[in-house]
Amino acid sequence: MTTRARELLQNVFGFPGFRGEQEAIVEHVADGNDALVLMPTGGGKSLCYQIPALLREGCGIVVSPLIALMQDQVEALRQLGVRAEYLNSTLDAGTAAQIERSLLAGELDLLYVAPERLLSPGFLSLLERSRIALFAIDEAHCVSQWGHDFRREYRELTILHERWPSIPRIALTATADPPTQREIAERLQLEQAQRFVSSFDRPNIRYNVVQKDNGRRQLRDFIAGHMGESGIVYCLSRKKVEKTAETLVELGVTALPYHAGLDAEVRARNQRRFLREDGIVMVATIAFGMGIDKPDVRFVAHMDLPKSIEGYYQETGRAGRDGEPAEAWLCHGLGDVVLLKQMIENSEAGEERKRLERRKLDSLVGYCETMQCRRQVLLASFGEAYPEPCGNCDNCLHPAETWDATVAAQKALSCVYRSGQRFGAMHLIDVLRGVDNERIRQFGHDQLSTFGVGHDLDARAWRGVFRQLVAADLLEVDAEGYGGLRLTEASRAVLRGERAVMLRKELPRKRERERNGRA
Ligand code: ADP
Ligand code: ZN
Fold first, then answer.
1. Contact criterion met (CB below 8 Å) for 55 and 47
2. Pick from 165, 170, 53, 164: which is nearest to 108 by CA?
3. Which residues share a beta bridge with 255?
4. Which of 123, 200, 364, 431 has the fewest CB within 10 Å, making it most exposed?
5. Which residues are paired to 172 by β-bridges?
6. Matching SUPFAM superfamilies, A to Z (predicted)?
7. Higher pLDDT, 41 or 13
8. 3-state secondary structure at position 44
9. Protein residue whose Cα sits closest to atom 25 of ligand 1
10. What is the CA(464)–ligand 2 centre distance, in A?
11. Which one, of 341, 500, 478, lies nearest residue 405 by Cα?
């Protein structure tokens, strides 16, 4: 078996050897066993079902939710001489019927199908009459209600096991936090399947997180160290995508926007250019990227906070698939946290879901605020231990300095308290710094005892204080209301002088700039 698998790998796919767990997985599935494969993006999941499909008699049926990806894969396979087809809503009836006939006639090695198509009674009965090598369930995390890619039809895929108990199934995903992993196994009835968990480390990606104070200017500084490179810049809103793309174009960068509000045609054209040309920067909402296989993306920049660590990992994972150095840059501020918290509270979701989303956001904020090695924190969230600090993240390269912020924290907390626990950080910082403006006078905040007591720190430093106090649960965001800040249970000890507060020193802008680009 092994030698035949290697022959196929070399002769059909043109690769000298298997990577990581691939060989073990191929053998396991080719032998007729079920598998649950957790491998990072770019790890090489496709071969894990493509080769067993070629080794076994019959056609490998691949369930995939991504139409664009299906087409790419099938095209690539055909060029290698593999008899591959796909069935989805983009095909006309005649073509689809033709493909179904080939399947029945045993003329296909691999058939990619969209889940809704697979589950249609007509197609299931066709499968009854065909010879099936295996079922591959790609993007298996779509079965999880908690992920952002939930697909209802994935829940019904257990029918494959019920109707064809002896045909091996292989489910694959790049999302692998332990709860999702458990849910996949349970929902797809793969509890008995052997699990193949690869390391999720992407050693060539350098992680870098900066405090946001003028996102667009900071992005400009960052991009200056990456001129001429392909990259992706993620923004939360469509409007911001447009604006950011314009800013970059003014800088002489070939930047293209991508979001769901653009014409399908424009989107497709921009995507094509990104894939084919060098040095294009795609500015996008998270709608962009699922299934994008461009090996030489040199950086992924986040202008806004993603919603979860898994999302962040997936998005940053699009950088450096060729193994060459790449950078993941994230610019985050308290404003993002407030906005995302409000989005969670104001959503239609049930309480259980909201609780989960709050937890996910908190762990992402924890990642942003950590003074530990970022890779260690990132991988730990996937249940993976990374023994030593990595030496390739901002915290490893430039260890954070801390300062005793107890007095500053006391000033901040008492300013929150005295102004009535309903204002946001921007206003509070103005009060602390003794700024004379309309709003402050309107509320009579120039009369507060905390007015002007914080002129020893600049606004940037204060932003860092407030953001870190929220992250440390010494302040909380009133996310159901206007996003004002309130004291928490824990704040009292600080106000009473019973608890010291050590915070990370925010970098002056100049030093942040110096750290951009390749060190
Ligand atoms: P995933 O689906 O896990 O994101 P892919 O299956 O698309 O990853 O593979 C990512 C890239 O790695 C592809 O360009 C693929 O051709 C390449 N690749 C996969 N396995 C090998 C291998 N054994 N040797 C060399 N290249 C490989
Ligand atoms: Zn590190």
1. no
2. 53
3. 281
4. 123
5. 37
6. HRDC-like, P-loop containing nucleoside triphosphate hydrolases
7. 13
8. coil
9. 15
10. 21
11. 500
The Å distance, Cα 399 to ligand 2 centre, comes to 9
Provide the CA 100 distance to its chain's centre, in angstroms.
36
Q: Closest ligand to 51 CA?
A: 1
| Integer Cα distance of 219 and 471 in angstroms | 24
Residue 157 has a pLDDT of 95
Consecutive H or E run containing 28:
helix 22-30
CA-derived radius of gyration, the chain: 26
Closest CA to 319 of 289, 295, 291, 355: 295
- Give the chain's count of helices (H) and strands (E): 23, 17
pLDDT averaged over every residue in the chain: 93
Position 117, amino acid: R
What's the 208 CA to ligand 2 centre distance in angstroms? 10
pTM of the model: 0.79
Here the ipTM equals: 0.98
Pocket probe mutation, ligand 1, options 12, 46, 324, max atoms within 8 Å of Cβ: 46
- Residue at 506: amino acid letter: E
- pLDDT tens, position by position, 342-366: 999 999 989 988 998 999 999 999 9
What's the CA dihedral at 179, 184, 190, 195 to 10 degrees?
-60
Residue minimizing CA distance to atom 21 of ligand 1: 44
Ligand that lies nearest to the alpha carbon of residue 176, given by its number in the listed order = 1
Q: Tokens standing for 203?
A: 């050693």
